[in-house]
Amino acid sequence: MGKAHAHAFARLPDVEIVGVSSRSREKAEQLATQVGARATTDDMEWIHDPSVDAISITLPTHLHRQYTIAALNAGKHVLLEKPFGLNVADCDAMMSAWRKSKRVLMVAHVLRFWGEYVSIRDALSRGSLGKPRAALAARLCARPAWANWFRDPNKSGGAVLDLMIHDFDIVNAIFGKPRAVFARGRQGKRGSWDDVVALVEYPGASATVQGSVMMPGPFPFTMSLRVCADHGTVEFSSRAAGAQVEAAIANPVFVYTETETQVLTPPPGDGYALQAEYFAGCVRHNRQPTLGTPAQARLAVALANAARVSLETGKPVPVRQGHKAKSK
Questions:
Q1: Which of 50, 155, 196, 290 is buried deepest, with most CB atoms within 10 A?
Q2: Under CATH, which number does the domain 114-270+300-318 receive?
Q3: Alpha-carbon span 304 to 156, nearest angstrom
Q4: Number of CB atoms found within 10 A of residue 94's CB
Q5: What share of the chain is helix, strand, coil (3-state, %, to 5)?
Q6: What DSSP line would sit under 11-30, residue for residue?
Q7: What pTM value is reported for the model?
Q8: Taking CA 154 as the corner, what is the angle to CA 148 and CA 19, rounded to the nearest 5 degrees?
């Protein structure tokens, strides 16, 4: 994700990438060369650099709280890769630092900029389909192979937090605040919930969210969303050209009613590039985002944590935003 963020910012004519940091000097230097920046293995170097206005944090999830608070306290604007944190307590600590800093804090829930998801939300917002009542969202892939921390539930939260958080955020955007969740699934060898189906209850609506990182290695990255409303259904599905979502191509969005079928072409632009441009605009004009807000990201974490509690107890769990998930 650091590579995705860096290349997205590099496309913007009025943004200069000052530096790249990574545990691996080789990886840092390789990416820094690609985007015309300096490289370091010291993550704090850029946080303390007075020439830096903003920090893009794509560190492992268990490090989000530490480095986001450090960056905000140093007066930097922050784009933080999802999920916001491992639990609501982490989110609250970062939000406290953010309020004191008076800087921009945005969580990179990129589906809010992804063409197909934008098209679906636009189709629903026009009102002709009536009120949305049910949704089916899925996100399926092989287990990420580029870092071992994904396998540790104390660092990643498993698929229910790291992968399904995308779809939890989108169904929250469509239906509002969730009331309760009931989830069933399979655990990986190290105890993380890595193959999950969650039924989420909203006022007058429900959503089923499926997520798995237990697909075989060659399985293409697959994502889909179908929303049924009072007067029609809107949907899309995508199977990437490779094992990762970066290889995905634009897919048509279908709108079905009793009288016609419409095919919508998603708006142009790469989701990561549009996200970077939006964040840069917020920083430039010193305005807080309305997409990827801390409150939206916190709600997605609360829902994911409640789903983990449901997985561990085998019972439906109310989505109270103070939930902390236990780790095994």
A1: 196
A2: 3.30.360.10
A3: 12
A4: 27
A5: 40, 25, 35
A6: T-TT----EEE-S-HHHHHH
A7: 0.94
A8: 60
